[in-house]
Amino acid sequence: MSSIHEKIRSAVDISQKAQRNYDLSKSVDSKDLETMIYAATNSPSKQNETHYSLYVYTDKSIIKKIYKETKQFSVLGSKGDFDKVFQEQDGKFYQSKDHSVYNSQILSNILFVFVEDHGTPRGGNSMIAQQTTDPNTESVRIYEEQCNYSIGIAVGELILSATLLGYKTGICSAFPKNIVGRIINSEYDPKLLVGVGYENVGIDRRLHAEVLNKNIVETRRTGELNEKWRFPSFKKHTKVFVNGNKNT
What we know:
Elements: H1 4-15, H2 30-41, E1 52-57, H3 60-67, E2 71-74, H4 82-85, E3 86-89, E4 92-95, E5 100-102, E6 110-116, H5 124-131, H6 138-164, E7 168-172, H7 177-183, E8 190-197, E9 207-212, E10 228-230, E11 241-242, E12 245-246
Antiparallel strand pairs: 1-6, 2-5, 3-4, 6-8, 7-8, 9-10, 11-12
C-alpha cells in the first residue's frame, strides 16, 4: 500500500500537468463533487474572510459556451511571427485569434468558475478597501492581493483533492472576464476557470479536444492534417532554500 507521502507526491505530479481532453461520456459521482466543492470553499483565507464565490457547472451547454470564449492559447509559427500574434496598444494587450486555439482543458465534466466576491471585512485594510471609491489606494492593493491569494489557495486545494479522487484537471486564466461574467450572470468578473473530469484512457493528455493540425499554422503542426493538434509541454525550475541554504 502506498504511503501518504507517495500519494501526495503522485497527486502533485499529476495535477501539475493540464489535461487537454476529457471523456465527456461519463458523469461525476455526486459524493466526489460535494467533496471537491467542500475543498474549494473551505480553504484558508485571511481571518477567514470571504474573497470569492464559486460557480460550478456540469451542464455541458454552459461549459461549452464558456469554453468558446477561451481562444487565447497562442500558436506561434516562428519567432518572426511574434509581432503578428501579440501587440500592446494604449495599455491593452491584443492577441491574434488566427494564431490561437481554445483552451480545451476546461471542456470538462465539471467546470469550476472562481469569481472575486466581497464578504464581511475583518482586517483594517479590508474595511477601508470596501468603503473607498479610489481604486489606487494601498488598502485596495493589499485587499486585491488577499483576494488573489485566497483564490489561488482554493484552486490548489481543489485540484489536489480532485486528483486524489482520481480525476484530471486544468486551469485557465486566459478569457474575457466580462463576457464570462455575463454568461454566468455574476455581479463580479470571474478570475479563474478550473476543469475537472475523466481522462481519455489511452489518449495523449496533450491532444486538443477538437482542433486538427490542418487548422494550425503549418510550422506548428504536430502530426498529420486530420490528427488532433498536440499542446506543448513545459517544465519549471523552482529554487528551494532550506534554512537559508540552496537545496540542490
